[in-house]
Each structure stands twice: as structure tokens, then as C-alpha cells.
Amino acid sequence: xxxxxxxxxxxxxxxDFELGSRSIPSPGTGEVLVKVQSVALNPVDYKIRETGYFVxxxxxxxxxxxxxxxxxxGEGVENFRKAIECKITLFFGLAHGNFTNDFGAFQHYTxxxxxxxxxxxxxxxxxxxxxxxxxxxxxxxxxxxxxFGAGLTPPWTTNVVESKTPIAILGGxxxxxxxxxxxxxxxxxxxxxxxxxxxxxELVKDYGATHFFxxxxxxxxxxxxINKITDSPIGIIYDAISLPETQSVxxxxxxxxxxxxxxxxxxxxxDEGRGRKTISTFGGPHAPQNEELCxxxxxxxxxxxxxxxxxxxxxxxxxxxLEGIIGGLERLKSGQVSGTKLVAHPQETQ
Length: 350
Ligand SMILES: NC(=O)c1ccc[n+]([C@@H]2O[C@H](COP(=O)([O-])OP(=O)(O)OC[C@H]3O[C@@H](n4cnc5c(N)ncnc54)[C@H](OP(=O)(O)O)[C@@H]3O)[C@@H](O)[C@H]2O)c1
Description:
Layout: E1 4-10, E2 17-23, E3 31-40, H1 43-51, E4 60-61, E5 65-73, H2 81-85, E6 92-96, E7 109-113, E8 117-119, H3 126-130, H4 133-144, E9 167-170, H5 175-186, E10 192-196, H6 201-207, E11 211-214, H7 219-227, E12 236-239, H8 244-253, E13 259-262, E14 277-280, H9 288-298, H10 301-307, E15 315-317, H11 324-333, E16 341-344
Parallel strand pairs: 9-10, 9-12, 10-11, 12-13, 13-14, 15-16
Antiparallel strand pairs: 1-2, 1-4, 3-5, 3-7, 3-16, 5-6, 6-8
Helix pairs in contact: 1-11, 4-5, 4-9, 7-8
Bound molecules: NADP nicotinamide-adenine-dinucleotide phosphate.
């Protein structure tokens, strides 16, 4: 029998999470086996349970934000092979997981795609690194993706000149919003206007927002406030929250021919004659439409993290290993988490 490991399993469609065991997978070509030290929780994890989207194979292992120790490399993965095989050094990696059981985060060992796995620099912990993958990829695809995004030029492929082009990011204290702010800074946008609760003003400015506004302002109030800081039309808005209320604020602000990037389906209607567009993004790097962009961005993730160009999210560690994820997802679902990523340690499961 192949070696077994503990995993948090979603028993069936719309079922309950329960602790179980399953075999440790072996890495195939282009894959990496990671001993999972830290995982971060995302809204998609409880939404999959509610909707049944993305997953077909039950019991299912969920979770896409992974940080851990690289244990084994499949064929064709040459990075760090010598170091690992000679046990010269441990290779710590962060990775974007996928919606199939061998590639899920909520277990002791998982496979990752080498293209979407990066080395964790010494300045970062497993916990901080785990807060990066989905939030960063979703912000990045929304801004730079040609299919699921606004198709802007990625700043890591060109010399960026600071411009007088404004951008607005709604929900700047959310994980996706925080990375959208940081990428907007790398892209040279100015001003970078962000909304959140007033208690998160410092956090959002620390990510790089140049102007902060209370998320409770109406579209009209926000527009009037923004008019005082820039004459330029707001041609691009990233609504990281994308609830009907934030979308209608964004629509009030968006200039003619502008683009509104959404993390959920559109609830505003695209308008005839003004040329404004909505794009619902999809942050999965494994999607064929995102593969090339995300392969190129994951190649610079280690550098971004070590230089501080991208700062991970603040986090809170949950108790009780994999089982702690269940309560964490309830807190996320009921909107009790603000400006923070919840992180769990699978190896601490009793
Ligand atoms: N399409 C995709 O591929 C994709 C990928 C990832 C996420 N998503 C979706 O994107 C959304 C955000 O995900 P996330 O992981 O970034 O969430 P998150 O970090 O859990 O979001 C929590 C934050 O949301 C903020 N917030 C809630 N309601 C708000 C509002 N009305 N206006 C402004 N801010 C508000 C809160 O801000 P304050 O506490 O400051 O008020 C809180 O800090 C979720 O719906 C998620 O499912 C989609």
C-alpha cells in the first residue's frame, strides 16, 4: 500500500469537511511534491462547498494557497534538483494549488506545478508566503491578462515610467485588493485610490495606495472626493469585492471607454455608446488562457518577495492543524475577517 497522509476532506457535494486519510501522490513530469507547512484560506474554499463549482471528484481536497518544503521533483524539473538529491539544503516553496485532489492544499503532502511554484526567500516565513498565491494571481490576471483581464502591459516585462494615470481599487484591504494596489504601484499608476474600512487605512496605504477613502461612501460622494485629487478620468477600476453595491460605486466612477475588472460576475449592465466594459477575472494560473502570463510572473515571485516589491498579507494562524480550517472558513463566510489572511498548519493536525 502506498504511504498514507492526513487530509481535510469535503465528503461530498454540499457535504461536511472531515479529517481523513489518503495516499501521498508521486510527482509526474513538471510536478513537485511539497510537504505542506502553511496553507491560507480563501472565500473560494467555502464557496465550493456551497455551490459545488470546480470540483468533481469526492471526497475532495480543497485549498490553493500552499507553502512548504519541497520533497521530490518530477521529470523535467531541474531547479534545485542537485540540492534536494544531495540533501545539501532544504528548498522552501510557495505554490498555487489546483482544484484536483492531488494538487489541493489541505493535506500533509501535495503536488504542485513547477511553473507555479517559487522559492521562498529567507526574509519570508511559510505563513507569510502562503498568503500570496491566489490573491496575487487574481490581481495580476485581472490587470494584465488578455482574456480574463484588462490586458495592461505587465511591469516585469517593460521599463515602467510613473504616469499620471489614476486607478481605483475597491476593497483595498482584501487579499486580492492588496495585491492589486501593489501591482498598480509597480505599473506606475498615480494616484492609486483605494477604499476599505477606516480601521484599515494605514494597512492599505502601506500596500501603496496614495489616497484612501471609506468604503461606505456612496458612488456620488466618492466621485466628488476623487475629483478633488485628480482631473484625469478614471479609466480603470479593480473591484476586488464585486458585490452589487461595490460594482455600482465603481460604475458611477468609471470614465467613458473605461474598464471595470471584477472578481465575481457582473451585476452592472455594460452601456451602449460610452464604450465601458466589465471583465470578470479568473485567477487560476492553470487555466490555458492564464498559463503564459502566470508562468512569466511566477518566475519573478521570489525576487518580488525578497526585494519587498510585493509584500505578503498580514495573517493569523488558526489552532488545531487541518481541523482548524473548518472554523476559519465559517469566520471568512460570515465576514468576520478584515485585512488579514487566515493560515493553518497541516502538520499540527492531532
Ligand atoms: N475570480 C477569481 O478568480 C477570484 C479569485 C480570488 C477571489 N475571488 C473573490 O474575490 C473576493 C475577494 O476575495 P479575497 O480573498 O480578496 O477576500 P478577503 O481578503 O477575505 O476579503 C476581506 C475584505 O473584504 C473587504 N470588504 C468586504 N466588503 C467590502 C465592501 N463592501 N467594500 C470594500 N471592502 C469590502 C473587507 O474590508 P474592510 O474590513 O476594510 O471593510 C475585508 O478586509 C471574494 O468574493 C472571492 O471569492 C475571486
